[in-house]
Every structure is written in structure tokens, then in C-alpha cells.
Amino acid sequence: PQGLMHLASSDESIINSGKIFMFAYSPDCLFMAYIFCVHGFFNGCGRTTFTMGNNILSSVLRIYLILTAVDIFDVGFSMPVATLLQAVVAVIYFKTGRWKQSLIGVRERGI
Prior knowledge:
The protein is an all-alpha fold. The protein contains 6 helices and no strands. The radius of gyration is 19 Å and the shape is elongated. The protein starts with a helix and ends with a helix.
């Protein structure tokens, strides 16, 4: 990552901060791959409200963690923490089996 950061700036303090941020943020790339798949599954099951709610929960947590961050590592680490919580909520929802309930007729009744 340092090589790419040199394209944006030659200031060593900026490059060092970018390296710290990327180190803290990088686990989020793995977690997000899981979340995209799981949310795609729930969307395919017609559970779009759950997916939207889980994304909003994660976004609110990210914002809170970023606003309370002490340094650049905390800012970067807030992303994987929020995504990990999102994954835990998705696993719990999956294990409840509520996603299996049929939605046929639910929309016609206005429920």
C-alpha cells in the first residue's frame, strides 16, 4: 500500500497514517464478501427489510465508532467491527429460520 500512497503524497506522515489505516481496515474486505453473499441470499428469499435494517444498524455503528475514535487506527478498525456485528446479526437471523417462512399471500393481505 505504501507504493500507491506515494502517488497521492510524498509526505511520510501521511503515508504512515495511510499504512496504519489500511492495516486496521483490511479485515473488513473479507467480512464484506460474506455480508454481500448473505444479504443477497436474504434478498432472494424476499427478506429485503431485514437486509435494509441490518445495513442501517451497521452504518449507525460505523458512524458512532468513527466519531468516538481516538486515532487513525480506531477509524480504520471501526469498519470491520461494524461489519462483524452485521455478520453476527445475519447468522442469528439465519439460525432462527424466520427467512424460511413463505411470503406468498403476505403482500396481498397487506401485512
